[in-house]
Write a structure and sequence with these properties.
314 residues; alpha/beta; 9-stranded mixed β-sheet; 44% helix
C-alpha cells in the first residue's frame, strides 16, 4: 500500500516543518495542489503574497528530493499500527475539522471514537500540590464514571494524574503530545502511552521521531483544547502552558473551567485569574457532573477566533 501523491506531498510539507497547517493551506491556494508546491522554484516561492522566509524557501525547494524519506516514515507508522490521517480521511476527529489552524495531519496510536465527543480536557502544572493531585483524580474519575472521555497532554504532574485516574477507572482517555509519536520518552511517561492507546488514543501532528520543542508543545496545547468541549485547569501559576491552553480553548469556543483555590495556595494563582475572567468554577465531583451534563445537552459554541478571557493576553 502506498500513499497517493497528493497526500505524500502534504506529508512532506508538514512533517518537514517547512510550513505549518496555515502555511500549507496558503501554499495550496496559491499553487493549486500540494504536488504543484513541490515542483515550484525558488523564484515562485519568493512571491511577497506567500510571506516565506529564505530558510523556508531553501527547505521547500529541496523537498521533492526527499519524498522517499517521508514515505518511509509513513510506512514505519503503518507497520506499528499507527494511522496517519488527513482532515478529509475517515477517522480524523470531526471536532478538530472546524477549529482555527486545524492539524493538517495526525498520527494516531489507538482509536479516536465518535463517542469521545464531547470530551473534557484536564490540564495543570507539572508541580501540583497533594491537594491538586487529589482534585485531579476526583475530577477525572467523575468524568469516567459518567462515560466522559478525558483529554490531556501526557506531561508530568496534573496531566499524567488525569490520564492515570481515567485508566484506573476503566475510562477512555486521549493524550495529545508535543513530539513525534515514536519519540515519546518512556522514562518520562512511565510507558503510560501504551496503556492510553489501549483505552483511547495518543495523537501527534509531527513527524514520528520529532523531538519535544517549545513550538511543538505550544501546538500540542491547542490540540489538547481542540479535542475537548470543556477545558479544566486544575492548578496553575500565573504563567505557563495551562493558561495558554485555556486561551486556545476560549478561541475555539470551548468552555473554560478552573478549580477554586484559597489565596494562600500559589499553585492556584492562574486558576483564580481564570475565575475572575468568568471561567466556570469547579469545587469537586458535583460540579464536575453538572459540567458533564451541560456538555451533553448544550450545543457547542462556534470558534471565536479570539479569546474571551481578557487576562490571557487579549
Amino acid at each position: 500500500m502506498r500513499l497517493n501523491t497528493d497526500k505524500l506531498a502534504r506529508l512532506a510539507l508538514l512533517w518537514s516543518e517547512a510550513v505549518g497547517p496555515a502555511g500549507l493551506l496558503r501554499l495550496v491556494a496559491h499553487f493549486g495542489t500540494a504536488e504543484k508546491v513541490l515542483t515550484a522554484s525558488a523564484d515562485d516561492f519568493a512571491s511577497p503574497d506567500l510571506g516565506l522566509r529564505p530558510e523556508q524557501i531553501a527547505l521547500l525547494t529541496g523537498l521533492r528530493n526527499r519524498l522517499e524519506d517521508f514515505e518511509a516514515q509513513w510506512e514505519e507508522c503503518r507497520s506499528r499500527y499507527i494511522r496517519v490521517l488527513f482532515p478529509d480521511d475517515d477517522g480524523y476527529p470531526r471536532i478538530l475539522r472546524d477549529i482555527p489552524n486545524r492539524p493538517g495531519v495526525l498520527a494516531i496510536r489507538g482509536n479516536w471514537l465518535a463517542s469521545d465527543d464531547p470530551a473534557v480536557g484536564i490540564v495543570g502544572t507539572r508541580r501540583p500540590t497533594k491537594d491538586g493531585l487529589r482534585m485531579t483524580e476526583i475530577l477525572a474519575k467523575t468524568c469516567a464514571s459518567v462515560g466522559m472521555t478525558i483529554v490531556s497532554g501526557l506531561a508530568f504532574g496534573v496531566d499524567q494524574a488525569a490520564h492515570e485516574a481515567a485508566l484506573a477507572a476503566h475510562g477512555r482517555t486521549i493524550a495529545a503530545v508535543g513530539c513525534g509519536i515514536l519519540a515519546i520518552e518512556a522514562e518520562k511517561s512511565g510507558g503510560m502511552e501504551s496503556r492510553i492507546a489501549e483505552q483511547g488514543a495518543v495523537l501527534s501532528e509531527f513527524a514520528p521521531r520529532a523531538p519535544v520543542t517549545v513550538p511543538h508543545l505550544m501546538a500540542r496545547n491547542r490540540l489538547t483544547s481542540g479535542l475537548a468541549r470543556a477545558l479544566i485547569v486544575v492548578q496553575s501559576r500565573h504563567r505557563g502552558g495551562s493558561l495558554i491552553t485555556a486561551r486556545n480553548a476560549a478561541r475555539q469556543g470551548r468552555i473554560v473551567a478552573a478549580v477554586a483555590w484559597p489565596e494562600e495556595v500559589p499553585e492556584g494563582e492562574g486558576c483564580r485569574e481564570l475565575l475572575r475572567a468568568r471561567a466556570v468554577e469547579l469545587r469537586g465531583a458535583e460540579d464536575m457532573r453538572a459540567l458533564a451534563d451541560r456538555l451533553r445537552t448544550e450545543q457547542p459554541a462556534p470558534a471565536r477566533g479570539s479569546s474571551q478571557l481578557p487576562l490571557l493576553g487579549e
